[in-house]
């Protein structure tokens, strides 16, 4: 089958190639009816833009870089799916890097991305990142930048996040209303924006219902496989919690497994809820209550913001946006009263 070109579409619709090109890009110069005709015909003949031809014509790579801590994380894999879907629909391809929670690797990834001459960057920060001078360097090079999920308030840029505060507040309040009195909070490294926002939501729910905040019930966990098990053992032996609220896919699974290994019944002995996008949460025994992040929507919004910035060259601080997308709490057997 021969590849359909812009010239073929123009000839079939009896319009100019420049009109077809602008219509496919969604240009404001083309009226809505012409855009509709072009898009419908392009879909009918399975037209897809040629990234190489476009890059030569526009002096662009037609590629965007994406840096995430770990692709295996369910949240990031879902976000990447939507990023690729948006990018491909607008004639861009995606170059993906992993920081593996390392600041040094994150900096190296950015150096590689700059060398590849991508048109823009999407990034979710590593668990070790507090210094964001490498992101300021990106901006000095006039490379469009969007932070998503794990962000930094030390840099002015477009940002897309989940409503972490509200999700944590609702999870903690759910446990309180289920009759729990000693609610432990197992969370990610304190540097992360998501850690701070979810801790704030946890504390706010305690305060609303007259519970005193107890630091001994809050545990920060790194990224080693053994640490969650050790934390669970310490909590059970020294603090005797009747509920546990965790804040990531990995922590939810590892802590859930540790409780099962110690023959601690959920929810009878300890109610349990995770902040997680695990697709198998409903298959666990007991089924796992979760606060679900809108991963697809976050990736979609981040990609659209970045591509709009690339095509409009928006770098004015006053025009930077922070988009906050609601979470969803799903109550299952692990936390039912």
Automatic annotation (TrEMBL):
Keywords: DNA-binding, Transcription, Transcription regulation. PANTHER family: HTH-TYPE TRANSCRIPTIONAL REGULATOR GALS, LACI-RELATED TRANSCRIPTIONAL REPRESSOR. CDD domains: HTH_LacI (cd01392), PBP1_LacI_sugar_binding-like (cd06267). Coiled coil: none annotated. Residues 4-58 form the HTH lacI-type domain. This is HTH-type transcriptional repressor CytR. The keyword Heme does not apply. SUPFAM superfamilies: lambda repressor-like DNA-binding domains, Periplasmic binding protein-like I. Signal peptide: none annotated.
């Amino acid at each position: 089958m021969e590849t359909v070109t812009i010239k073929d579409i123009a000839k079939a619709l009896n319009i100019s190639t420049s009109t077809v090109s602008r219509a496919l890009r969604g240009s404001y110069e083309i009226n809505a009816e012409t855009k509709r005709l072009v898009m419908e015909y392009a879909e009918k003949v399975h037209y897809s833009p040629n990234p190489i031809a476009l890059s030569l014509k526009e002096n662009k790579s037609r590629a965007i870089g994406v840096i995430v801590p770990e692709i295996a994380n369910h949240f990031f894999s879902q976000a990447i799916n939507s990023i690729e879907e948006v990018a491909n629909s607008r004639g861009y391809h995606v170059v993906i890097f992993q920081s593996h929670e390392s600041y040094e690797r994150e900096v190296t990834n950015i150096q590689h991305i700059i060398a590849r001459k991508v048109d823009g960057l999407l990034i979710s920060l590593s668990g070790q990142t507090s210094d964001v001078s490498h992101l300021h360097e990106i901006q000095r090079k006039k490379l469009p930048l969007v932070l998503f999920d794990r962000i930094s308030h030390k840099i002015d840029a477009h940002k897309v996040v989940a409503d972490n505060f509200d999700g944590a507040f609702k999870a903690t309040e759910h446990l309180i209303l289920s009759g729990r009195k000693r609610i432990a909070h197992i969370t990610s490294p304190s540097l992360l924006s998501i850690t701070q926002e979810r801790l704030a939501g946890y504390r706010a729910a305690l305060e609303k219902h007259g519970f005193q905040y107890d630091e001994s019930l809050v545990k920060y966990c790194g990224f080693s496989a053994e640490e969650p098990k050790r934390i669970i053992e310490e909590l059970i032996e020294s603090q005797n919690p009747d509920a546990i609220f965790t804040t990531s896919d990995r922590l939810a699974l590892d802590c859930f497994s540790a409780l099962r290994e110690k023959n601690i019944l959920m929810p009878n002995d300890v109610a349990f809820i995770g902040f997680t996008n695990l697709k198998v949460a409903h298959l666990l025994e007991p089924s796992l209550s979760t606060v679900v992040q809108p991963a697809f929507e976050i990736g979609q919004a981040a990609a659209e913001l970045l591509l709009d910035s690339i095509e409009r060259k928006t770098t004015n601080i006053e025009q930077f946006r922070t988009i906050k997308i609601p979470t969803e709490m799903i109550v299952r057997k692990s936390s039912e009263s």
